[in-house]
Amino acid sequence: LDRLLGQAEDLKPESSWLLDQIGIQPGWRAADIGCGPIGVLDMLADRVGPSGSVVGIEREARFAAMARDETGRRGLRNVSIVEGDMLDAALDPASFDLVHERLVLINVPQANQLSILGSMSRLLRPGGVAALENWDRASYLCYPEHPAWQVLNDAYREAVRPTNGDGTTGRTLSWLLRSAGFTGIRTKVHVRAVEVGDRRRTHRLGLLDVTRPKILATGRLTEAEFDAHRAALAEHLADPATLLIDQLFVQAWGVKPG
To answer: Which of 45, 98, 109, 166 could form a disulfide with 30 if both were Cys (CB 3.0 to 4.6 A apart)?
Structure first.
């Protein structure tokens, strides 16, 4: 919960910029797909106002429960949470002005991504907006280079590729929107240099810890090799002299024709 709430807070400047570009109006009905414990529900709730409504769609029961608790704690009375897979969610078609996702597409196989775009389109009214936000590893590097960085990143990508894709989702967002029939597509790319003390500085280490069993199951590294590389990388990233350039954070949005 702390990690996901922290991530939402970290990405608030970029996501706020995107929502401002879209020009959300009071009274709109908006959905946040795969909202987790908060996603952009708070920012949407503020923009649509008391006359509008926001629906968070979350398939993981524990995250949906977190979202109900968090939106209740924040007093977001115009937000409701729907638990279930968005591909099967019982929501009225053509009933939303905006459907948004952040870091959902990057966590599903590429073959499923167009299906998700199709479901987003189904929920939108003609003239409604679909908005996508995802990472792309194109810029992800540290300098001075360190062998453990490459070894562990390669091992991570091999372990998650069957279920999560290969970390290049960001560059495909405009193409996905166009393939799903959206028009007026716009794109913005953000990137940061991540200093010591920033949560993003150790984000990869956290993901490595979570996926350690999957990485070891590939046989690419032994337990001792994994632990040694992780310790070496943690030490390298803790050095303020090490430059870490984060992944690209790519945003794309488009309009459903009417």
So the answer is: 98
Distances, alpha carbon 99 to alpha carbons 54, 222, 253, in Å: 10, 43, 10
Contact partners, residue 114, CB within 8 Å, separation at least 6 = 176, 179, 180
**Gap between the Cα atoms of 254 and 130, Å rounded:** 6
- In sign, the C-alpha dihedral spanning 115, 119, 122, 124 is negative
pLDDT for res 109: 82
**Contact yes or no for 244/193 (Cβ under 8 A):** yes
Residue type at 177 in one-letter notation: L
Here the tokens at position 108 are 């599903």
User: 170-212: per-residue pLDDT in tens?
Assistant: 999 999 999 999 999 999 999 999 999 998 999 899 999 999 9
Q: CB neighbours of 145 closer than 8 A, spacing ≥ 6?
A: none
Pairing of strands 96-102, 141-143: unpaired
Q: Determine the Cα–Cα distance for residues 153 and 12; give it in Å rounded to an integer.
A: 26
Nearest to 124 by CA among 98, 91, 87: 98
